[in-house]
Amino acid sequence: MVKIMGLTNDEQFQQAATLYEEIWKDNDHSIEERIQKHSSYSGFRGLAILSNEGSMIGFSYGYTSLPTQFYHNLLAEELNALEYQRWLKDCFEFVELAIHPSYRNRGFARLLATKLVEAVENKTAILTTQVDNHPARTLYKSLGWKDIKEPFFPGNSKQAYVIMGKEL
């Protein structure tokens, strides 16, 4: 039986960063700094799933999306005024969902994605994922997320993303 817990302290942020780096083969170590920074944002909410042995096998987190934030402004540039009012005005930004590959296809991503937004008081939630990440897009669509804009190239990224939204 796995255990779901809050992602709330530096030790857990470090475990999440280690898992992220293992999954994405990313060794720039900036993910831990990003999680720590994001944990100070209004409305931060993070969850982790632990294996029976107590190791972190997945995590998700997000926060209230505000105009003072870098990614909020990237998203705002892509949306027209009506889309901005609908999707970003009172929005929870679903930032990250990661599951260790050996634990995928067992419902853990669905569980984390559902639980993360369950108690959020914002009117909407928004996320981005790679256009070609079909498993993620399929999961999110099955949970009621809608495509808002595709393609989206955040910052200087050459990778195409899709902006997805959900009414809460």
UniProtKB/TrEMBL annotation:
SUPFAM superfamilies linked: Acyl-CoA N-acyltransferases (Nat) (SSF55729)
InterPro entries, A to Z: Acyl_CoA_acyltransferase, GNAT_dom
N-acetyltransferase domain boundaries: 2-168
Signal sequence extent: none
CDD domains assigned to the protein according to its UniProt record, in alphabetical order: NAT_SF
Single GO MF annotation: acyltransferase activity, transferring groups other than amino-acyl groups
Organism in which the protein naturally occurs: Oceanobacillus indicireducens
Coiled-coil blocks: none
Name of protein: N-acetyltransferase
Highest rank taxon of the organism: Bacteria
